[in-house]
Amino acid sequence: MFKFIIAGNPNVGKSTLFNSITKSSEHTGNYHGVTVEEKSKIVKFNNESYQFVDLPGIYSLNCNSFEEEVSKTQLLKSNNIIMLLDANSLRKNLYLCLQLSEMNINYKILINNYDYFKKNKNEIDVNLLNKNLKNEVEIVNAKKIKLQEFLKIIKNDSVFSSNYNKKTEIFKKNEQNLNNLENNFNFDYLKKYINLVKNKFNLTDYEIIHALNGDILPNLQKKQEIFDYIQQILPDLIADRYKFIDNLLEKAIKIKSGFCYGYSKFDKILLNPIFMLIFFVFTFFASIYIIFFNIGPLFSDFLINIFNFLIATPFLNFLYSTIDNIWVIQFFEGGVFSSVTTVLSFLPQVTLLFIFLGVLEDSGLIGRLAFVLDDFLSAFGLNGKAIYIMLLGFGCNTVSTMATRSMNTKELKIKSAIINPYFSCMARLPIFVIIASAFFSKYAYFVVAGLYVLGIVVALVMSLILNKTMLPTKRNDFLLEFAPLRGVEFKRVLKLGAQNGLDMLKRIFGVVLTVGIIVWILSHTKFNLQFTEAITDSILFFFADKISFLFAPIGLNNAGIVSALIVGLMAKELIVSTISITNSVNTNSALISSLTLSSSVVHFTPASALSFLVFILLYCPCMSNMAVLKKEVGGFYFAFATLSQLTIAYLMSFVVYLACTKGAMLSILAAVIIAAIVASIIYISKKIKHPKCLSCNKCK
Amino acid sequence: MNLNQVKLNTNCIVKDVLIPEQKTKIRLMELGLIKGVNVIVKNRSMLKKTLLIIFNSSCFSLNADIAKYIEVNYV
């Protein structure tokens, strides 16, 4: 099997190329840092297997973020590297190529986005570039290239044809060849720096070249001294590398009109902070209104009617006509179809909202928003990049937790991962819409919008607290390359929506259905394993009832609600299906009506409904998020994040419930007491972390 | 020369990249911001602490914590 690595600077089109040649639908977007982990796919062509690996974007082998480390590790150990360059930023893109060449790592250069470059009346003399780079450069269109065409380019390349069947023993090969530094280029400038390091340390050429490229080999003595010295000479080396690149590009690139890739005339308007904020907030909340309260329900009704007409009704009719056992019939009616239909009805809305987020990603607006909000977010110990995390979090918290890798310091990464679950994900929306519609009819939309705002406020306050205590960020290292504004590619955006819709469908017929069946069995089975129609006699209610007193202060001391909250820890979609099963209803409208009736097993008052919504917004999003969070931030911060989510959810619900039942004054008093307790904890934790000392600046 | 002296849409030449944290300085240089490069400050963000600058045909936004250490000469 042949393995190819696709690498290059961020936002040059690596994932687009990967998708085109492997016919995949990996997430792409018009901003930097979309891919945060390597993605791989094996495809077959003419009885041969080809593995393609898409790496996260990397500017330099001197890594500055966690996703760059992932790419660097692969680049250093791999053969058959495809370096994808953007025609509009060749100078900057070639810097990484030069570093690889210095380390004698072979690669094939493909140039993407040439159309945009040509549009500005600029040209690349490919023959001259080939001659200067000593590489067979090819111009490709990453969006349109097919596997066959791609393989033809690769197989004709002399570098690849010689390396084609070799295993990845690149280090060994390098060590042998590095004394002869003329494999790809003649690096006169490099010899100067090798000699400088040699005068200070007893190292081989191989070790020095690795060290100059941010890779100090583990077996070396005096690692810190070598690192410090390299950092001192690196600025001059970088300047020499750019001189080298400029010589390579001289004459090969003909710039007829000066241009700036990334900045356009529309940015004069878009980068006005007030305009951008109003535009974004209005667009986001308007889209939620239109999708969930306007056109979305029409699609939902249509989908559920189709589902009932084609599957549910014929199947149940068949059961009624052939089986006598009421247990079996109720199992399918109340367990299987109940858990599926109520969640399935939100499939069109969720798909539409993902399409909307895809439009935002594709347009290049997210980078503009990051720029506009950087100052504001830095006041909370974050930076502009946190806006990516927030927008991805509105889709799925698990994906956005992984995206925290794009943060360039450990503190920022952990802080972003801890606050990320407070951004309300798509799985919570169905329950928000149902409860809000049941109790706040014409104000339902404002309740849902308010919940989004509350989630953002809690996340920012949490970040501020973390910044003042456990995870202080000394300064804001925000540095972001602007992606160009471009027309939305509707085919890609629709594909993204369809992909996410399909993922939701898989979850509905996977985890939602499985857990739904388990919940139904537990809620219809007594301890003696006999079937019961009285849910209050069931095993599930026995245990839920035992702990429901804990939820009395927040108005949720109902065994049905408690079981829904417990099941919701696995996935938020399960809350709707669990309540539907418990109340034995099959449709959204029946569910909405049942929630207001005191005769239903699960029912609310307006106060407890609001408290329930706040609790769902703020407590742990789902199991997969918790697993990813633990992997990304480690055990201590994971435990802290989980406990804080549960505590904050409980306290906030308590304040809301108190405000609704006992009046505003009492709730303000409770909020003040809670704030005082939180402030005391912050003060104590600061003292514990920073006992009086003379050297620590924080104590002064 | 500090940030306050950097005016909007001013074409500047980087005299030196002086940043206390070597790692950030090296990253800026690796992106092509080296001595003598033309810098155009295009815009500022909400509280004017984040700059949008253009150098070598590329557009970057960076925070004043970084930008204030870029010493510039006005053309």
How does this structure look, described?
- The complex is a heterodimer of chains A (700) and B (75).
- Chain A has 31 helices and 9 strands.
- With 700 residues, chain A is mainly alpha-helical.
- Chain A folds into 3 domains: 1-262, 3-Layer(aba) Sandwich (Rossmann fold), CATH 3.40.50.300; 275-474 and 490-662, no CATH class; 663-700, no CATH class.
- In chain A, the strands form 2 sheets. Chain A has a 6-stranded mixed sheet, sandwiched between helices.
- In chain A, strand 4 (81-86), helix 3 (90-102) and strand 5 form a beta-alpha-beta unit.
- In chain A, helix 19 (397-403) runs parallel beside helix 29.
- Chain A is globular, with a radius of gyration of 29 Å.
- The model of chain A is unreliable at 164-184 and 690-700 (pLDDT under 50).
- Chain B is globular, with a radius of gyration of 11 Å.
- The longest helix of chain B is centred in the middle third of the chain and has 9 residues, at 22-30.
- Chain B has a 5-stranded antiparallel sheet with strand order 4-3-2-1-5.
- Chain B contains 2 helices and 5 strands, in the order E-H-E-E-E-H-E.
- Chain B has one domain: SH3 type barrels.
- The model of chain B is unreliable at 1-8 (pLDDT under 50).
- Chain B is an alpha+beta fold and 75 residues long.
Describe the protein's topology:
The complex is a heterodimer of chains A (700) and B (75).
Chain A: E1 2-7, H1 14-22, E2 39-45, E3 48-54, H2 66-77, E4 81-86, H3 90-102, E5 107-112, H4 114-119, E6 123-124, H5 126-133, E7 138-139, H6 147-155, H7 158-163, H8 170-177, H9 188-200, H10 205-212, H11 223-249, E8 253-254, H12 267-270, H13 273-294, H14 296-322, H15 326-344, H16 347-363, H17 365-378, H18 386-395, H19 397-403, H20 410-419, H21 429-439, H22 444-468, E9 479-481, H23 490-523, H24 539-547, H25 559-568, H26 573-582, H27 588-596, H28 606-618, H29 623-633, H30 635-662, H31 664-689
Parallel strand pairs in A: 1-3, 1-4, 4-5, 5-7
Antiparallel strand pairs in A: 2-3, 6-8
Helix pairs in contact in A: 3-11, 9-10, 9-11, 13-16, 13-17, 14-15, 14-16, 15-23, 15-26, 16-23, 18-19, 19-29, 20-22, 21-22, 21-27, 21-28, 22-28, 23-26, 24-25, 25-26, 28-30, 29-30, 30-31
Chain B: E1 11-17, H1 22-30, E2 38-44, E3 50-55, E4 58-63, H2 64-67, E5 70-74
